[in-house]
């Protein structure tokens, strides 16, 4: 069973609670320790201030002070019951010992803990353990009188000053936390409102409604999401339109050979002449071949349209061209045509051999099919530092300059075409060229007649920055791309 993901609003609330709680906890602990340190420093400062006062007293005064003691409590009780955990209200006396230059005791408090005073540092306040309590101890030496003053005071470890500061910080935090969370909840809801609007707009989109999403006063953080979503919708709209067009065109193109097959099959069934039956069956076979070829072309286009990742390898272009030309030699012989290969025999491409062969098959098929009887089909390869140029040209009737711009459209056939065809060949060539980052150019063929098709491949893998080769084809005359 799937677990429902936490909503963005709840996630933000949880993060705010954790952040605020952690911040207040750190502030509480920091304030408590700071106040505790201040109380200790306050007590230490009082001990240091008492030392010079004792230096000025005579022995009788010191003895009297030792008898009565020095009360250093921090607070005076304002009611009879003192808090049990607040040592600020306790009777806390400073005990002292005064000695002369020779170390003889001048005065000493009767309750002074037993401590080795001679081992204690002079001029600084230290915490020492004596008996069952912790004491603050300060020792000073007066150079004028030669007296050594040692003072001890119980450490104030339960002062409500530190806990009071922390409590004063904690109480407002505890009271205001629910209010803060309520305000944060509504604020987050207002801040996330554009996401809600975007969600509703996306839910309203389907295959019949792929219009761009427009939201008034779009926040800067949401704008890239809307831009990317609109780009996706545009690609979907284009893809669906292309799919509908391709389906309609494919159905139209398949209808012709299927109708011809049906007619020839009916002729074969109704005729009693065996020669006529054989001829009709041969035409049925030709119609099936034509339909099968059309389906193969459509499948190849669908494979390329899906941007399928096709592995590339280094191949020698001359070998692929030779193989494609040998495969079509019998078709050229039927029309008494000459197939000629010229140019650089060592040119190499980083591409897929099957797709390059499909590209060549379509170029040579077009050239042989539409070329003149007894004419020539020339395949030329040349290279430079950045590009590999593959050109196939014939000396047939050619194509007008106006129609050249549409030769790569699916199912487009020139008005001068005299042979049967599906109009997919050059569209497939264009898609294969685009797949490998190549450029496709059309111009006049051999001696200004026929058609020349030039595919310009980058000699390095697609993705590297190359200067666009279009400058080599400014002139539409065949001489601008001829080897």
UniProtKB/TrEMBL annotation:
Q: Where in the cell is it found?
A: Membrane
Which EC main class describes this enzyme?
transferase
Please provide, in alphabetical order, the Gene Ontology terms of the cellular component aspect for this entry.
Answer: plasma membrane
The UniProt catalytic activity note for this protein reads:
ATP + protein L-histidine = ADP + protein N-phospho-L-histidine
Q: Can you give the residue ranges of the Histidine kinase domain?
A: 249-461
| Gene3D superfamilies to which the protein is assigned, alphabetical | 1.10.287.130, Histidine kinase-like ATPase, C-terminal domain
Keywords, in A-Z order = ATP-binding, Kinase, Membrane, Nucleotide-binding, Phosphoprotein, Transferase, Transmembrane, Transmembrane helix, Two-component regulatory system
Q: What is this protein called?
A: histidine kinase
Q: Which organism is it from?
A: Caballeronia choica
